[in-house]
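Backbone-to-sequence.
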């Protein structure tokens, strides 16, 4: 699976640790920045990951900022993106199964790296169930 990843300066360290973890599991990760802890603006990276996903350059995206909220809002401004902020694995799994989310956002100031790994695993391992959920997802478009 090809995963586009992005973060602001607050999420930089967690993004890098998560990237290494996901690559170790066999995923190809495209790092769209930030590339340092120097102050930067989360909308830039939310948009970059969203465009990579909707443009077919990545199968899905993972974003990290302080809370995950701002960067997910930025990603959701791109047509075709369904970004979700998750702080635990159950919601991450259901967001994929029921809402067919294609971008996951995580808050580096909210959770630790081990929980971030569990959330990413739950989200990446889940599959959209379709059926009654498909009609609802189509309503979002």
């Amino acid at each position: 699976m090809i995963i586009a990843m992005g973060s602001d300066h607050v999420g930089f360290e967690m993004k890098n640790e998560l990237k290494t973890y996901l690559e170790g599991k066999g995923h190809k990760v495209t790092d769209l920045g930030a590339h340092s802890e120097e102050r930067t603006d989360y909308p830039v990276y939310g948009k970059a990951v969203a465009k990579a996903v909707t443009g077919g350059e990545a199968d899905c995206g993972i974003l990290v900022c302080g809370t995950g909220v701002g960067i997910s809002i930025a990603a959701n401004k791109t047509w075709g993106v369904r970004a979700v902020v998750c702080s635990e694995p159950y919601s991450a799994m259901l967001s994929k199964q029921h809402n067919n989310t294609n971008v996951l956002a995580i808050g580096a100031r909210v959770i630790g790296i081990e929980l971030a790994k569990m959330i990413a695993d739950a989200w990446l391992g889940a599959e959209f169930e379709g059926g009654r959920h498909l009609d609802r997802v189509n309503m979002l478009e």
